[in-house]
Amino acid sequence: MFAPRSVAVIGASGDTTKIGGRPLKFLKANGFAGEIYPINPRAAEIQGLPAYPSIGAVPRTVDHAIIALPSTSVMAAIEACAARRVRSATIFSSGFAEIGDEGRRLQERLAAVAREAGMRILGPNCMGFMNLRTGLIASFAFMVDLGLPPRGRIALVSQSGAFGGQALVMARDKRMPLGAWVTTGNECDIELADCIGHFARDAETDVIMGYMEGCKSADKLVAALELARDNGKAVVMVKAGSSDVGRQAVQSHTGALAGNDRVFDAIFRQYGVHNAASVEGLFDVAYAASGGRIPREGKLGVFTVSGGIGVLAADAAERAGLELPALPEAAREQLQQLLPHASVRNPVDGTAQIWSDMKVFDTFLQTMARAGDYDALLLFLTAMPYSPALQLPLKACLLRLREAHPDKLLILSMFAPPEFCREMADAGYLLFEDTTRAIEAIAALRDMARGGDGARDGARDGDRDAADAEANASPAAYPALDGADHEHALKQVLTRAGISVPEERLVHDVQSGALAAEELGYPVALKIVSPDIGHKSDAGGVALGLADREAFIDAWKAMMPRVREAHPAARIEGVLVTPMVSGGVEMIVGVHRDPIFGPVAMVGFGGIFAELFGDVSLRRAPVRRHEALAMIRELKGFGLLDGARGRPKADIAALADTIVRLSGLAAANDAVVESIEINPVRLLGVGAGALALDAALVARTPAAME
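Given the sequence above, the corresponding structure tokens read:
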């Protein structure tokens, strides 16, 4: 599709203001070197090119067909393309799945024809695509008339044609170097994920920008993102549809299912994708990534000629989680001698006095770049590049800095003449007028560099059972969950899966229960066991902290009538007697089925914290060990587990093992699991492990499996 030797325009028009006329005009005007075949039965020549009455009448091979016809004529055109063995087609026409059931059925017929013929279809209801490197402008977007962005190594993919059009204009205005531009529309065949996968393989693409409303093929999307990560491609997305109103708009616009936005966030984070909060953020981060210099540590040096901007930069860096290490003492002393009134820690403020001697300015920059432990250096120059007296020496200083430190990320925050900006951009500087946006972009690059869930962290902390935990990710290594319809049965399966459970006894009468309590040791807990009671506490089926035999018997006698009154028809399998486990931190580990991505693992703080603060982390199951460690570190309350404020450190390795094993168990039993949850997990001190105190399974219903 991206490299056709010939293109036919079905519905071609001599009127360049019409949808069928614009692609011909754009192909001719932008230097497409292949053959162009206008198709229109009412004309012998269109826009100076010989026209043909049908695709079948074209005397040579047609690689790609652009279909600019009413929806009622599209099916016949696609069937004609299939008969002619056209390899790919773009359908501009609307009137398909976005309008309802009738349109959806018509769209499914299009997809069936494409599959049978081995033909790929872009659209319908799309604005087309462009390969700007070859002049292949297979689009009717009037924005092309406004001028195209410079050619480069960024690919932009959008499920929305309107967004794609706006982004094209923004790319031109921002001089973003695009190599390709695609709008996927209804995605009857080619999806956004296919495009990401294509550009992940493309040697001429470094950065992939995307606008996403929904996902039809989760496996395809994950495979594409994984390929992009493994091939070193930066992926920057805007995901729409996070609000209830937004999700409704998505469904009416494309018929796509937006899915749980937090799950999308987790998937993006898992594969090093930056999910931008705004269109400006999308462009900022894609632009920053296009430079190819990625700050992996997030150690930032800031040079300013304004104390106020230095404070703003420090505040922005702290919010973004970037480090601002001070210059080494020897470097500080050297700079202080040169400029006694300067502030020389970091941010380094040369004050306006620095402009009086450009050699001092040059020394400040070179010292920061050489002596500072920075993988990114941000230089705030105000509007000084407009000064005629400073332009040439300033330019010389900056070019020397760039030449001396070719691998360092260098950013200029300034107002400057266009020619000055172009020279600095050509030299490899990133240019931002706003220091805060520059810092946010740097932080995004840092986070993307840590994509794939921080394998470095996993290697550092893969201290125990790492190989065993990874091996357990094989579905064959896990027991079946069939028949685990109550807590005790489920815990037995958890034990076989390698998850630690406290010793407990299933009893059926008060005498055997009291004996079990004495053997386990007081205090103990009592919990009703029934496949028909999901929330035991609500039914009065839980008693905690029973300190002796008398308390145990009283609790048993009070519990049974309460449960029977609440659930008179429930099957009672017995009562669990388990010792009370104290100390440590209560966590929750679970797996739930997402309608798009399937089983998704979750970890968070137990009790009210997960609900009140939303302090949970998600990953698609099964989860590998280094991914589980990254999930734990993402929690806002991670410091509570890592010894903050003198607290004892928790057994993070044991919690990671629990996540790995529960996610593997759920994935291996995907056909029967709607959700599985351990709440709470009692996480003890380092080396003491993690215990599953309570567990629940919700099985998939036959309707959910359809």
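The chain has a mean pLDDT of 91. Try to locate this feature in the token string yourself.
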